[in-house]
Amino acid sequence: MNERYELAIERIRSIVHEDTVAPVYRDYFQKVAGFILEIDAIKNRLEKKPNAECTLEELKSENENIYRDVTGEMYEESFANPAYTVKLFGKDLGQLLSFLYTEIRGEIPYVYEKRTEYLAICNELFIEIYNCFEGVEIPDYKELKSIVYWYASDYCDVFLADRIEEQLNPEAAFATDIIMQSDLTDLRYLYYYGEYVSENEWKTAMHLNTLPQQTIDRMAEVYTEGYRKGFELAGIDLSKKSVVNIRYQLGFERVIKKAIENFAAMGLRPSIYRAAVSAVTKKGQHKIGFCGGSPNKQYEYDHRNDQGLFMDKKLIERKLDVMKNAYEQHKELAAKFAGPAVMEVFGEEPFAPLQKAEAISLSEKQEQLSVTYDSKAGQLTNQYIKGEERSFTIIAYPVPEIGEQYEEIFNEIIRINTLDADLYARIQQALIDALDKGEYVHILGKGKNTTDLKVQLYHLNNPEKETIFENCVADVNIPVGEVFTSPVLEGTDGVLYVSKVYLHELQYKDLRLEFKDGRITDYSCSNFEDAEEGKKFIKSNLLHNHDTLPMGEFAIGTNTTAYVVGKKYQIEDKLPILIAEKTGPHFAVGDTCYSWSEENKVYNRDGKEIVAKDNSISILRKEDVSKAYFHCHTDITIPYDELAEISVVQSDGTKTTILKDGRFVLEGTEPLNEPFRDDCL
Length: 681
Hints:
Mean pLDDT: 95
Shape: globular
Low-confidence stretches: none
Structural class: alpha+beta
Largest sheet: 8 strands, antiparallel
Strand content: 15-25%
Number of helices: 22
Number of domains: 3
Helix content: 40-55%
Number of strands: 19
């Protein structure tokens, strides 16, 4: 592999000075070759002078240099920008060359992880494409596209297979070693990963270093105990598991280090893998795994569909074969995989992307292939990591970009994440007692909010022993503050409207979804002047290319403390859905909360079994599992101040009002209004 790498580098060194391609393409190839040589210089530096021997200034300068080309105004004339390359080279060649440079930029993490094989593969792809441009005015586009296709096909058994192993095997310990072996008071460690280090990561690490160990321990305990409780409440034996997957953003290493120690006491070792960087393994612009800051969210959005350059049925089948072989090879590790423990961040400026016609997009056929792949990949994963035997937890903290009052907000979020679960359990039980008597719930917006929605509820056969709603008190889903159920689809009708919401790092304005029998029948937003562009945006990013999705969850959030904090600091639009979903009623589109684990018996604290776990789609798993799941679940919240009323209606027409004009009015829920009074909201 070293020989392959060196041969490629020698060829690339000569490209920088050659004039064998047409002048219009020369600058592109010379600059991309120059970038590869920068990566080679880092490789040589790491071999001769490890990170720990470098000064902070050296590491910081190196990080800035390799990411500069896609940051700020530099991106406008970067070959990573499809709008720029299409302008220079035309649509077909422009898209392909922008893809190629973006794929080459994946060498940044590869070089820090010392993955010589990955570097060689990418460099050979670059050379093969370059060869097609030599001695001709216009290269054969079909030949270029074929090269890209076989790159993706031939090497998915490297990129994809390795990714599955990294998920399962704690011996793949690149990030773990940085966390556990570094002096975390010396912020040079942030540059050891090869991720982009923005002020958010830097200032987060600085802030955590000012906190007493007691506070760090408290943050870690909430995170790890939530994970443990998830297994306990679901009746899953955690002692049979040995691996926990930790996902986080750089800067939180002090908390993660303590969490690793806590997990070790439970018999769990961490697998910590990086968010994917290759189009072969990426899932849109979503980052699953550890990551640094984003050098440019528009850049990441522009390349979310790069797989459209090579995706076809044959490649999808090959990827599924690679997945199966990888899981089969590591099936013992898969059986001991407990699930993810996720620490999210929030507070960045909401991102409303530009829709660039020059960016690669999926054809209608490819959208369907993508849906098929997600379905089959989900089924395959569940064969080896059984849904009924795994759990998760998720928690979120702000980053400094949230504003000048960052430290105050950070402390408030610690408080929110550690609210009295017992108090909320009692209050939420009052809600559940009322809801369990209902046939349906009516949600009505006020003012500009045009929500008018009827949510049909499961019929209880034995109310003394059964319940419809789960009493959520900060286990897998931190912080406390919701009661939720899987609604009956048939009879769930109406309009859901939210003036502004932030989902999967994308902002939606005036989001409107229409439901009939629990399925989305129409949708719109005002992000773009062209209504059709808004529809495409929603279908791609919210519906995940499905023609429709069902309402998989209905919940009433009760965390008025979090709502008031959002209002007080004017960060409502920056709160992550994890917290935002607790600040009003929310509705998830996609799978139910119990997908892949419907057969597990789950009980509330009062001893009643939660029986509303299926709907008429998810129950199809008993006949054809491919028809039961959508492999997505997105929560959409209506804030309290946009609500006229939430009421539950019984079969005889009796109506019980739960919330009126944004305040809880049901007997037993009065303490939820105290934060409003304290802050005069």
